[in-house]
Amino acid sequence: ISGILDVYLIYQTMLFIPFYLQDEASPAALTDLCLTYVSQNLECFCVKRPDGSLCFREAVLFPQELADQLLAKMATEGLLNDSTVGIFRNCEYLRLRRACIRTARISAEAFQRALCPHRLLELDAARVNADLTIPDILQGLATNKYCQESLQRLVLTGLTMSSLEEPIRYRFSSLQALRSLSLANVDFYDSGLVDVCSLPRLESLDLSNTSVTNLSPLLGLKERLRSLTLHQLKRLEMSTAQLLGVIGQLDVLQHLDISDDKQFTSDVARQLLGHPGILPALVSLDVSGRKQVTDAAVKAFVEERPGMTFVGLLATDVTGEANETQICEALRRYSEREGFVREALFHLFSLTHVMEKPRPDILKLVVLGMRNHPATLNVQLAASACVFNLTKQDLAAGMPVRLLSTVTQLLLEAMRTFPNHQQLQKNCLLSLCSDRILQEVPFNRFEAAKLVMQWLCNHEDQNMQRMAVAIISILAAKLSTEQTAQLGAELFIVKQLLHIVRQKATQGVVDATLKFTLSALWNLTDESPTTCRHFIENQGLDLFIKVLESFPNESSIQQKVLGLLNNIAEVGELHGELMVQGFLDHISNLLHSLEVEVSYFAAGILAHLTSRGEEAWTLSPSLRSSLLEQLHNVITKWPTPECEMVAYRSFNPFFPLLECFHTPGVQLWAAWAMQHVCSKNASRYCSMLLEEGGLQQLEHVHAHPQTHKDVKMLAESILDSLQRHRARTGQPANTHISRRPPTQ
Ligand SMILES: *[C@@H]1O[C@H](CO)[C@@H](O)[C@H](O)[C@H]1NC(C)=O
Ligand SMILES: *[C@@H]1O[C@H](CO)[C@@H](O)[C@H](O)[C@H]1NC(C)=O
Ligand SMILES: *[C@@H]1O[C@H](CO)[C@@H](O)[C@H](O)[C@H]1NC(C)=O
Ligand SMILES: *[C@@H]1O[C@H](CO)[C@@H](O)[C@H](O)[C@H]1NC(C)=O
Ligand SMILES: *[C@@H]1O[C@H](CO)[C@@H](O)[C@H](O)[C@H]1NC(C)=O
Ligand SMILES: *[C@@H]1O[C@H](CO)[C@@H](O)[C@H](O)[C@H]1NC(C)=O
Ligand SMILES: CC(=O)N[C@H]1CO[C@H](CO)[C@@H](O)[C@@H]1O
């Protein structure tokens, strides 16, 4: 036990398993998955008390460790608030011992009612919201005598000390069992230190970045204090001699941290190292960031103390970041100190030049820094550069998906936090632009597409523009129909993409940017009438005709342009816009293209327009019959394409076309399209067709006396595929035809 206590005093471990110790390559632990489920779905298990707080509906008895873990999980995932913390009010069923409410947002009252009735051993309230101050916590703890007597470890990092109106009524010294206390980043002054130093059991104290000016009260702890952390004491008013005079009397001190990232000129480190016999029990010393430290002094100091296990030398004159081992140790150890994290990331970046193997262990440490300092630009900047190098090309393949998922979410958060920082946005886009990430890793693609789009609207850098549209085109293909519709409905997105197409058409350049932009527009208009309308309202049609004219021999461009125009043609209310002689001339020309990919989409546009019947046709009737005839002739001559020409999200747009018994050309196109995708990917499209009620409709077409023989043949072929698919999978035919109402 004393060994364990040492480790715990020295490293100040968190209560939950630190992120960097989790193995991202294995599946999450079952306990963890269960706790995540419970914490994210609390309302399903709970009833609300009159004050709005939650309470488990049934008496569920949690093992005590699990209760601790549930609380920590809710806190770290941002789910702990006045309402949800209510489940812990019942301390018979959910017994807390090691309570972690890091970064939670709860009020003093909720804290008191839910946490203070427990007989806590530990409380970690680091960086909770400003509504819960240190006096609130002390006052809450004072309401339970048992808790006051049991609490051994208290972490108050980053909290507010003062409630200026009230005199301090609750004191640390009432926590008689306290052994470890962290007050880092607290507005904590000398008067408080006197109070703290009267604690009878205190062994570990962290005063980093507090406002104490004089450390003499520490002498009250001289027989007990084993761990003392004095990182960056900005207001200290002691000479080096006075400081060492106090520290030198702490006879049992094992861990001392006098690091500093503000590079004060004090020579305390040099003096300490050169002070013979001082602190004989020391095993760990941190002088990172201190100048005037020399190799010889460090060596002599360590030799004099054979028990030393650690000397922190980051950013000193002695190398503390010379190799990977040291940099990684710095990232782990200083993950809460932004200045050191930035420094370590900076050195890590230069190391990534020589990394040839995937290093998930290092990427995890980068993630740790990003997580802990979301609002610190310099950290995010250095971290995003490291992420890019660590996940570049083949390296990403060796990274666990869960880790990449976390990284990606953090990159998006950085993009959101610093929308106008060019270099940061660049780093993030570069990292995102990875096949593995875009295709395989789960993250919020909708959010990502929006962020990338926003960036695109404000910048014209050619390389970045190409990357941004590439990302958007891949993301757009992976969003749900509702999401693409929602994205496309944002007017600025369509405008910006059309703007890029216009630039390229004017320059007469066919490049990757143009292709990606057209793909993105194609996907965004899919089953989204609003996006289609934006397209028309922003002169998209004229522009796309211009593109067709500008690149008459580029079938890959033609295919994308016509694919998008197919989406427009699916929207009945926009048909009027397409009934223009010049436009139809173009399309009927392309219908005769030798490339089936081009001809297919031209045919689709004509099929949709002619399907409306003669009364809706505003041009000459003879043109309509001629087009229908050409349509029929062309389709029967198409060869079987080698690969899938198009991906469909549903067959809904095809069903109305199948009902056009008076125009076999139209029916033929719809049947050909279905047959095409079903033969290329039966598992995907046959099951989609069955689900959408396609079986009944095709049987109807097949049996109908008016059906043209060419259509019949295709219907038969699709029915065969469906039959085989059902035999293989046992999927039932959906008799409930849930068809989207036709868009009028
Ligand atoms: C508390 O958090 C839960 C889960 O995130 C949320 O559903 C609820 O609206 C929040 N309640 C309050 C009062 O903030
Ligand atoms: C130092 O503490 C103050 C509060 O006293 C806080 O505002 C500041 O952010 C802290 N500095 C760092 C680097 O955490
Ligand atoms: C890094 O340096 C330390 C101290 O010299 C040494 O112990 C360690 O093995 C080195 N690590 C690597 C990977 O070279
Ligand atoms: C890391 O980035 C730098 C700067 O872009 C580059 O020179 C270096 O080759 C990259 N290293 C790796 C492993 O990709
Ligand atoms: C485009 O194709 C036509 C017919 O195949 C050909 O006559 C013409 O020269 C081509 N134009 C260009 C710019 O390649
Ligand atoms: C068929 O579609 C499924 C589901 O979309 C996909 O996972 C699979 O890779 C596709 N198969 C082929 C051969 O394209
Ligand atoms: C549903 C949809 O429109 N998918 C298209 C998205 O863009 C890619 C690339 O251009 C096409 O292949 C898909 O058919």
From TrEMBL:
Gene3D superfamilies: Leucine-rich Repeat Variant, Ribonuclease Inhibitor. Residues 369-723 form the Protein zer-1 homolog-like C-terminal domain. InterPro entries: ARM-like, ARM-type_fold, Leu-rich_rpt, LRR_dom_sf, ZER1-like_C, Zyg-11_UBL_adapter. It comes from the Eukaryota. GO terms for cellular component: Cul2-RING ubiquitin ligase complex. PROSITE patterns: LRR. The keyword rRNA-binding does not apply. The keyword Coiled coil does not apply. Residues 731-744 have a biased composition (Polar residues). Keywords: Leucine-rich repeat, Repeat, Ubl conjugation pathway. Residues 725-744 are annotated as: Disordered. SUPFAM superfamilies: ARM repeat, RNI-like. Belongs to the zyg-11 family. This is Zyg-11 homolog (C. elegans). It comes from Sphaeramia orbicularis (orbiculate cardinalfish).
